[in-house]
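ok so i was messing around last nite and threw this chain in just to see what happens. nothing serious, just curious
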Amino acid sequence: MKIAILGAGAMGTALAVHCAKRNRVILWSIEKDVVEDISQFSQNRKYLSDVPLPRSVQATSDLSSAVKGAGVIFITVPSFAFREVLAQLKPFLRPRQILCHMTKGIEPASGRRMSEIIKEVLGAPTYVGIGGPMIARGMAQGQAAAACVASTSLKAARLVARIMAAKNFDARSTNDLKGVEWCGILKNIYSIALGVCDGLPTDSNTKAVVFVKIMEEMMELVPRLGGKKETVFSYAGLGDLVTSGYGAGRNRKFGEQLCGAILSGQTSEGTVEGKAAVKKVAQFLRSKKIKAPILESVADLCGGSQPSKKMVMEWLNA
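result:
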């Protein structure tokens, strides 16, 4: 099967390496230097250096040729670019093509989830949302990874799960699209809190208690937001939170850097999905009269409040 991947950043490139074992893969990027690097040297040194790409992975800046004849189209671009990419894709999308997104966030301007943007821009194509512990470099190097593959069409979810599944990759289908999307959004936000635990720093016991408190808060939130409670304990929830909150994820690093920025007097740099989402999510929850004290604290942190051990103690009693 031909597979098109829109976005040749770290995740898009890692997904290309993974899917190329059994499929023909086309990577699309607007960055000509990335396309040239992949086409000439079978590498993406800008986003995933030292990971050789199979010769079966091709790259292009021509969106029409990228998606023509593709059975499945993966979108791996950041949330702020998602709507624009869909608008460019719309003239070329065909009815039987399955659209998959791996963007774990909300649109910063509107606060909408990715599936809501797909409905707005494209109408009602068959689409799938994917979430789980998938650090790009490890995935590209053949390390273990996993995903929940979610769609209101279980047939589509199962097809994409079969495409992604491998000896070292467990892909599980589900019809809980809202739950998988919300888990991806929330784990980014809560990983900032876990990064604060590392940056202050706190001891391992304290971080473990905060982690459990976060899981309890997610268990309350996800069902009230339209998802299933069991999804919180899936790869999309618990699995991804462990990876993001304890590993090299950007959201955890951002939380850790917040503490360093306060101590050094410097401003933490870089925008991560958790930071981009938390203000809109907090506003949405307040409008629904849903309480989420740890999430509200992260919103305060991203709004300029200083991390403190007093704040962490409040999380312990949330």
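not much to say yet. The chain has two domains: 2-175, 178-316.
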